[in-house]
Design goal:
By secondary structure, the chain is mainly α. The protein is built from 27 helices and 7 strands. The protein is globular. It starts with a helix and ends with a strand.
Length: 747
């Protein structure tokens, strides 16, 4: 107890000390990477931005996180982050930057929290290096510069970590409850992804607390019960509310939050099986915002993760697991193929893995000599916490069937913590000539530099040979010199160690800046010279490294641009490639995607995500993040009091019009168009009540609403395209090329 009290006194004393001046530039770097030019992103992630626009209009929409102002369907995530974004938009006005701001601040906050967490136990230099590593981990600023959820999620989990560490230091059960309750809050940000840290929390509390096993079990059981109660609190309220008094729960198939949490946003992420059933038709669910406009519908029993199809596994050698710098892009959304070395494959390694070899050497050094039965030092206990965070999350991303690159931000805190703690520990072992442990520092530097060269090699055409050669040569030289000078103690050795750390962080720092340099992608954020691309891939295989992988599409009602054989969408089913969905930026014909059936194949794809835009604002919120003004004028002029401006198949077509006008636009099938929300009878009733009369239909988003779409076509009047279709050659193209506008009036 005296030990506990002394720690509390030390903490109070340290809090009174002046600000760490070395921390100031680190925070400024984080602020620059997270905040600079976010004001140029007008729409951000249009799917989420449209929801914020809707949530600003009523408490009903705010509480349920309604995608549309009419309260027809929700977004596919819980509401907490969007509550924060809506409050930000209420304070600062509705802008792209105001919905991004909370995530950017969360990214900076995570850097500060990691400094505090690591510094206390491992020393001030460990805290500084951990904070810097966190700030320069490329995927961290890439995600924090968008209105996606993950940056806020990581910040919340780090707050929970701080509470847990304090609970152990002060021996106060209240902090344990607070820590687990905070995980419950995180669950209401991104559901089961928040629970990925639970192994670390349980292991650390069991190992670090000096209380009886009976109390440990009782305390953890109580804290877990509280966490679960907080986790399901919003879900219980929503699911217990009558369906006709709330929006449909988007991307669920039973209109249930709990089904969404444990299905679409839960187990299906691990298995990759995102097929859903709706209205007696089994269709693949589109799995995130971008997929609503980038993927096409597959046949009845296919998985949404086309990279896992049997045809690809059997017939395409390009689907074999590749290490960094491998030949072809692999896996859906450039996430590689499942396997032991997946995090070292191209597409993932340049987002998160720059320091992984050094982290591995650090783990060896930090746990060297530890006995299973203990006793454990505070450093070993906290190292165990970070290891119990790192390993389960790394295993998940190594085997998961479906995720996006930006989910890898979950690995950033433990990697940064080990980088900081390990740098100090390995340096101490090196200086003290601690046997074989003294070789860990030069070994870690050498292997890390080698991996970084491997990571950069596919990007030689865009970044040049010099930085790649520089990291390789300097890494080898510094590692060898440190090995040779191992027995010497002078200031030169200190400078060599510092120089080695600079070399290892140089290219991650550049990669972290690429969303600023090349332009970011708010839908599927990633870092690298192809950071504006929707699916990544070395720019050497793309037409323009500053263009998106899909390079934009046209809003409902705009005509096709110039014909082009490149960058087309090809339907997965019935195509010559055996049902594969080809990735942009691939080799040969793999870089092509053709629109789904019923739309034009000769659609020119202008640059929609380019960092250079004809306007001062970058509309990077989606492939149709432009409004067809002629269509909007027609619909507005001919609206005779209908609740919805128009109805369309999915959210991709609807979002820009909601953002632009603030008026209800019905995404009949939810985000992807596959939600079984409508029936023919329900639609008839809505039309008779005068709620909707215009329908924009394209080749996308049929899913579980094919019967509804068939009925619309059979009972409607087609509006001549000359009345509403834009002929501007600069118009961006919609989710599936040209669609058709219908009008239905029932008496």
């Amino acid at each position: 107890m005296k030990y506990m009290n002394s720690e509390v006194k030390e903490e109070r004393t340290s809090n009174k000390k002046r600000i760490d001046l070395f921390l100031v530039p680190i925070v400024l770097i984080a602020a620059f990477l997270n905040l600079f030019k976010i004001w140029t992103d007008e729409y951000a992630n249009a799917y989420y931005t449209a929801a914020v626009k809707s949530m600003l209009q009523s408490f009903h929409n705010f509480f349920y996180a309604s995608f549309d102002p009419g309260g027809y369907v929700t977004i596919d995530k819980p509401p907490v982050v969007f509550w924060i974004q809506t409050i930000s938009a209420k304070i600062f006005g509705f802008h792209g930057w105001s919905v991004i701001l909370p995530q950017a601040l969360a990214g900076i906050g995570s850097v500060l929290l990691l400094y505090v967490l690591v510094k206390r136990t491992f020393g001030v230099w460990a805290g500084r290096f951990a904070a810097l590593a966190m700030a320069l981990t490329p995927i961290v600023p890439a995600v924090s510069r968008t209105n996606n959820i993950d940056s806020m999620l990581v910040f919340t989990l780090l707050v929970a970590t701080w509470m847990l560490f304090r609970a152990v230091r002060t021996a106060k059960f209240g902090w344990v409850l607070a820590a687990f309750a905070m995980i419950g809050v995180a669950f209401n940000m991104k559901m089961l992804q928040a629970y990925m840290v639970l192994p670390a929390f349980y292991v650390f509390y069991v190992v670090a607390t000096k209380i009886t096993w009976k109390k440990k079990i009782a305390f953890l059981t109580t804290a877990t019960a509280l966490m679960l109660a907080v986790s399901v609190s919003w879900a219980v309220v929503v699911d217990s509310t009558s369906a006709d008094k709330r929006p449909y729960m988007g991307s669920s198939q039973t209109n249930s939050v709990l089904e969404l949490a444990f299905g679409y946003n839960g187990i299906n992420r691990l298995t990759g099986n995102t097929s859903v059933t709706g209205s007696s038709h089994k269709q693949p669910a589109q799995t995130e915002q971008q997929t609503a406009s980038s993927e096409t519908k597959q046949n009845s029993n296919s998985s949404a993760d086309s990279s896992q199809s049997s045809n690809q596994r059997k017939s395409s050698s390009s689907q074999k697991m590749q290490a960094p710098g491998g030949g072809n892009q692999n896996g859906m959304f450039n996430t590689g193929n499942p396997g032991l070395f997946r995090l070292f494959q191209k597409g993932l390694s340049d987002q998160i893995s720059w320091l992984l070899p050094f982290v591995i050497f650090s783990i060896v050094g930090l746990f060297a000599g530890v006995k299973f039965k203990g006793p454990y030092t505070t450093k070993q206990k906290e190292s165990l916490f970070w290891l119990a965070w790192l390993l389960p999350v790394a295993v998940f991303f190594s085997i998961a069937g479906f995720f996006h690159q930006y989910y890898l931000i979950m690995l950033a805190p433990p990697i940064a913590a080990f980088a900081g703690a390990g740098a100090v520990a390995l340096w101490s072992m090196y200086k003290q000539h601690n046997g074989w442990k003294s070789w860990l520092l030069p070994g870690g530097i050498l292997t890390t530099a080698a991996l970084q060269v491997y990571i950069m090699s596919p990007y030689v055409s865009s970044i040049g040979v010099a930085p790649i050669a520089g990291v390789g040569v300097l890494g080898v030289i510094l590692a060898l010199v440190l090995a040779i000078r191992k027995q010497r103690k002078n200031s030169l050795t200190n400078y060599l160690g510092a120089a080695a750390m600079v070399v290892l962080l140089a290219m991650p720092a550049y990669w972290a800046m690429t969303p600023i340099i090349y332009g970011g992608n708010s839908m599927l954020p990633s870092a690298g010279p192809d950071s504006s691309s929707s699916m990544g891939g070395p720019p050497s295989t793309a037409t323009n490294s500053k263009q998106s992988g899909f390079n934009g599409m046209q809003p409902p009602g705009s005509s096709s641009g110039n014909s082009s054989s490149n960058n087309q969408m090809q339907p997965p089913s019935g195509s010559s490639n055996g049902g594969q969905m080809q990735m942009p930026g691939g080799s040969s014909n793999n870089g092509q995607m053709q629109p789904p059936s019923g739309s034009s194949n000769n659609s020119q794809m202008p640059n929609s995500f380019s960092s250079k835009s004809s306007s001062s604002k970058r509309k990077s919120g989606g492939m149709n993040a432009e409004v067809n003004q002629k269509l909007l004028n027609y619909l507005t002029k001919n609206n005779t009091g209908e609740k919805y401006l128009f109805a369309t198949t999915d959210s991709t077509s609807a979002a820009p019009y909601i953002i632009k006008t603030g008026k209800p636009v019905m995404a009949m099938g939810g985000f992807s168009g596959s939600d079984p929300i409508l029936t023919v009878n329900k639609l008839k009733a809505m039309i008779k009540k005068g709620e909707v009369k215009y329908f924009y239909l394209s080749g996308m988003g049929k899913g579980g609403q094919s019967d509804v779409i068939t009925w619309i076509k059979e009972n409607s009047k087609e509006i001549p395209s000359s009345k509403w279709q834009s002929t501007s050659s600069s118009a961006q193209q919609g989710p599936s090329g040209n669609g058709t506008l219908y009008e239905i009036t029932l008496k």
